Amino acid sequence: MIIKYCKVCVFPETKPDLSFSENGVCSACVAAEQKNKGIDWKQREKEFQEIVDYYKLKEGEVGYDCLIPVSGGKDSTYQAYFMKFVCGMNPLCVCFETTMVTDLGQKI
After folding, report:
1. Residue 26: how many other CB atoms lie within 10 Å
2. pLDDT in tens, 67-105
3. pTM of the model
4. Among 60, 82, 85, 98, fewest CB within 10 Å belongs to which?
5. Strand 66-70 vs strand 91-95: parallel, antiparallel, or unpaired?
6. Residue 66: how many CB atoms within 10 A of its CB?
7. Nearest to residue 61, comparing CAs of 89, 82, 81?
8. For residues 11 and 27, what is the distance between their CA atoms, to the nearest angstrom?
9. Burial environment of residue 61 by CB neighbours within 10 A (0 to 12, 13 to 18, 19 or more)
């Protein structure tokens, strides 16, 4: 068996749900390229900050500003870090376990 690799990032085809274009570029690289076209990231950041400001507790208030489902993996850990230390919010982190595990995930 010959494993196919992305011509841009060298990601192997063994990753679940990854597809390749006719040019040998993986779907992750295609998505990454598309996200930088047609999106005004400065505007998106401004809109995000407005949402954060709206939900952030006022000075002296006690409680949580937001809810973050976490699995303990790098993505949810970063989300909790970002909301706490970058946005200055007080998140309530709730343990979350994926209920839709793939067949491959079941084997590993």
Report:
1. 23
2. 999 988 899 999 999 999 999 999 999 986 767 777 776
3. 0.64
4. 60
5. parallel
6. 19
7. 89
8. 10
9. exposed
pLDDT at 39: 85
Burial class (CB in 10 A: 0-12, 13-18, 19+), 6: buried
Residue with structure tokens 């779907």?
Answer: 27
Write down the pLDDT at residue 42.
94
Which H, E and C letters describe the chain, residue by residue? CCCCECCCCCCECCCCCCCECCCCCEHHHHHHHHHCCCCCHHHHHHHHHHHHHHHCCCCCCCCCCEEEEECCCHHHHHHHHHHHHHCCCCEEEEECCCCCCCHHHHHC
Q: Kindly report the CA angle at 24 between 23 and 25, in degrees rounded to 5?
A: 95
Distance in angstroms (rounded) separating the CA atoms of residues 66 and 64 = 6
